[in-house]
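Sequence in, structure out.
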Amino acid sequence: MGLATPRFASVDRTAAPLWQAVSMPSTPASIDAPADTTVIYTDGACSGNPGPGGWGWVIPDGAFGSGFAPDTTNQRMELTAVLEAVRAVPGRLLIVSDSTYVVNCFRDSWWKGWLDRGWKTSAKKPVANQDLWEPLVELYLEREVDFRWVKGHAGDQWNDIADRLAVEAVINEGGRSGDETPTDLGSPDELNKQKQEKKKTSRMDAPGGHRLVVLGHRPPQIGGYEANPIADRIRRRLADIIEAKSLMFDDLVVVTGLRLGAEQLGAEAAIEAGVPYVAVLPYPEPEKVWPRAAQERFQELLSGAREAQTLQKKAPEDKQKAGAAMARRDAWLAQNSTEALVVWDGADKAVGALVKTLEKHLGDEVWVVDPNAC
């Protein structure tokens, strides 16, 4: 069903969210909502990214549901949990999720731009996971549904239960549902131990294959933050090199941190060359301080990665700690890559220092792409 016609205009999406009209207590486990609104907690889990995944939703002291997907991503499971909850529960809803990917779409109205552009991003790329976003947005427009973010793994009873339902679905390779809160869920530690055991045989410290890491300049050195001819030329040059490397190494995989600039161009070049890429993030949600369009593009590229690793469990508290985390990430990439492609004009000192670090570990297998020569 298309969303081009405004037949869902009966719900006023300019009004404040339902829960903003009431007092929100500091205790996350006791979220208040109007009497005619059902609060639902949702969560998703994935063993590898992509890999087998699970989703779960629960109404405090009420019904619940969960499900399994054999080959999926964490973002798809977060989305599926919300979609299945909205489909299952009638009436006005307040969805409580620890996924900024889900909550920010509605908080910041990403979906409006997607609809205006015919399910294209601001970069004119297809919206990732459109098969899930489209029915969810349609229900959002038809129904009265609002969203609230809650910090995950922070002591919220119902977020914890939704998470355990999702992890249980991964372990059991199947979901379940009921009218009352389940009392037979394992503890978080027990479930996570089982989850880790399940994926132990496929887990590795570094991606498999011949690992080609792409690093280098960030905007504005490569033409700015928006799409531009300089960035296009760099991407095409990277794609040509990656394609040539793939003829030499049939197990080639591109490694990228997905930062703005050369790293994202590396992922896009891998897609163009038909080579898989993996994402290595320094900490959770490094994109959250970026502009909205940049966040959308990051999420799209992340969802397209063959797998993703996050080196640090918690986000840094300040810029100094963020810088330290980035330095650790750069060191990890240098230690765990086979070759490196660096977009460098020969003048930028920070990128030059990175080239030296890579050469210490990779020797002659560091290749410089001069953006001025592309």
